[in-house]
Amino acid sequence: MLNDRQPARLIKVGIVGYGNLGRGAELAVTANDDMQLAGVFSRRDPASVTPQLETTSVWPMDALDDFSGRIDVLILCGGSKDDLPRQTPELARRFCVVDSFDTHARIPEHFEAVDSAARAGRTTALISAGWDPGLFSIQRVMAEALVPGGDTYTFWGRGLSQGHSDAVRQVPGVAGGVQYTLPSEDSLEEVRSGRQPQLGAAQMHRRECFVVLKPGADPEEVRRAIVDMPHYFADYDTQVHFIDAATLAREHGAMPHGGRVVRAGKTSADHAQVLEYGLKLDSNPEFTASVLVAYARAVARLHGQKNFGALTVLDIPPGLISPLSPAELRKRYL
Q1: Closest to 53 measured CA to CA, from 78, 23, 73, 9
Q2: Averaged confidence pLDDT in the chain
Q3: Collapsing DSSP states into helix, strand and coil, what is residue 132?
Q4: Quick one: average pLDDT of 106-131?
Q5: 137 forms bridges with which residues in the sheet?
Q6: Which domains does the chain have, with CATH numbers?
Q7: H-helix or E-strand containing 251?
Q8: Contact 293, 186 (CB under 8 A)
Q9: Which of 257, 285, 71 is CA-nearest to residue 179?
Q10: pLDDT tens-digit profile of 160-212?
């Protein structure tokens, strides 16, 4: 892993699912000179799917059987609530995969299911890639190792959450919707001061949903199903606004997001240290897709080294996600 790598053939990547994240992955794959897009695989009729690039082929999901041995890594672009818990273990038995499973509380059980499948299939599977979980996870580990005496805080937003928006759309009676995460600026400034406040979830963020109802749906039933949803909304001050489809399309089509990881602590009784890492994203799905594609490179390399089973971003050295060789990385960045 640490030896200088020799030039390799193009990494052949397939995309499973063609929503916002899948479209971002299409652009990200084609932006990398060491990768080649094998195609998009969709549950929809391929004739109804219009890719952004004329060179992109669209296939039905059952066509994956015909691509055995012809795809190095599949990037799975389904939702964390219903799609990835089923798709990732199923596909990891036949292909190397990368997913963005982001239900934090369920990551351990998802890892075990995927690890078992990948070991049985002798594949390499990376779960929970993206920026949180993903890049922010790395920053939390680094910050706590560097400043062991302290507290770590994660602030998300203001932004549109793909995973939470998908969860909203799965509620019976919902025709469409989005969810925004809004951080508490007062809490963020208190953390930056180095005072290490004890903050609960509701003190750090609130959540705001904009929902289009299906005909005949009961607004109160829908609202209650959203605000009581475990892992997503139950621990937060959540507001639900009902709007029409035209307003949703006109006012909530953009997908900005971002956030910060802040570590506040002391290296001695006299010296406080504050570490901060932040992202400001104009397009959440395009950036998340770029992270998945970079880690697909690492998965292809690790599979070539016969490293089978499930992994997370915490297991992968940063040099493996770069197209540069170790010698080039040492020359440019050290």
Answers
A1: 23
A2: 95
A3: coil
A4: 98
A5: none
A6: 11-132+285-333 (3.40.50.720), 159-255 (3.30.360.10)
A7: helix 245-251
A8: no
A9: 257
A10: 987 899 899 999 999 999 999 999 999 999 999 998 999 998 899 999 999 99
